[in-house]
Design a protein that fits this description.
The chain is mainly α. The chain has seven helices and no strands. α2 packs antiparallel against α4 and α5 crosses α7 (166-188).
């Protein structure tokens, strides 16, 4: 798809810039891309039923009217389709940005990791938010298929309809990443 080409082109361009500037990341770009994609997909698929229950509990029409326990995997295709690219984009951006930030601000690990994680979230949400919009609407029973959801959102709301909640998602994800990734880096050592 078109957006996937943009994601890979941006990631490869950032990686080439890093290499040309003499930077060496801890993790190669391709490894971060593959590992991030596999990890993201595994987590999203494993926890999907719990996510569906949460979404239906939050639905304005109520849990049972939104589907209750029926069709607990409705929307899994949307989640799975966005999981690998979103997580891969996060981790490849994170690993690519770390040495760039370090070259600018010096050896301040928490600041470097926080900036890199924030950049990773900004990029990953470009894929994650449209996936979440479609997935949550399918979980709430508004649409019966991925194709129907995507077509209706595009027709009624245009391309920006897929980005409903982008800023809110960033306001949630960035503070979490600012805490999580410096801790994760410390625990790896």
């Amino acid at each position: 798809p078109f957006w996937l080409n943009i994601v890979f082109a941006a990631g490869l361009e950032a990686h080439n810039w890093q290499r040309n500037m003499g930077g060496t990341g801890d993790t190669p770009f391709s490894m971060a891309l593959l590992a991030g994609g596999c990890a993201g997909t595994s987590v999203d698929v494993a926890l999907f039923p719990i996510d569906t229950i949460k979404t239906r509990c939050q639905a304005k029409e109520g849990f049972f009217a939104a589907g209750g326990f029926k069709g607990i995997y409705r929307g899994l295709t949307a989640a799975a389709a966005g999981s690998a690219p979103g997580a891969a984009l996060f981790f490849s951006t994170y690993e690519t940005v770390k040495p760039i930030v370090k070259s600018q601000i010096g050896d301040r690990p928490v600041a470097v990791q926080g900036c890199a994680a924030s950049a990773g979230e900004i990029m990953a949400c470009l894929v994650r938010v449209p996936t979440e919009v479609v997935k949550q609407r399918m979980q709430a029973g508004q649409y019966g298929s991925l194709k129907e959801a995507a077509h209706t959102i595009m027709t009624k709301e245009g391309p920006m309809g897929f980005y409903t909640g982008y800023r809110t998602m960033l306001l949630r994800e960035i503070p979490f990443a600012l805490i999580q990734f410096p801790l994760w880096e410390q625990m790896k050592q």
